Write the structure tokens for this entry.
Amino acid sequence: MGTMIYKAVPAPIWRQAQQKAEWGGAPVDLADGYIHFSTADQLIETLAKHFAGQEDLVLVAIDEDRLGEALRWEVSRGGALFPHLYAPLSTKDVDWVEELPLDTDGHHRLPERLS
């Protein structure tokens, strides 16, 4: 098993992806030409920077090994390596999906399995 990688997605968009069995990414992903993912260590900062205060998000988790050569680790924020998928994401490759509710301070509460 490889590293687990994560993507925050608005729940309605993820439901549409499930119906189509694949997803090309959010508008920012489509503009950049790849789907942005984060590791568990990068996730809190990614949520704060790109999804602050957004409700009705889900967290999509995938084992990197399922994505093959289309997944590349590239230097991004702060010089860290981030996983980028240069292909649509097949929903069959997803390990799990959980809600990302906001706590009383407006921060996203990560699933217990990430604690």
Remarks:
- Helices lie at 11-20, 27-32, 40-50.
- Strands lie at 4-10, 22-23, 35-36, 57-63, 71-75, 81-85, 89-90, 96-99.
- The first helix runs from residue 11 to 20.
- The mean pLDDT is 94.
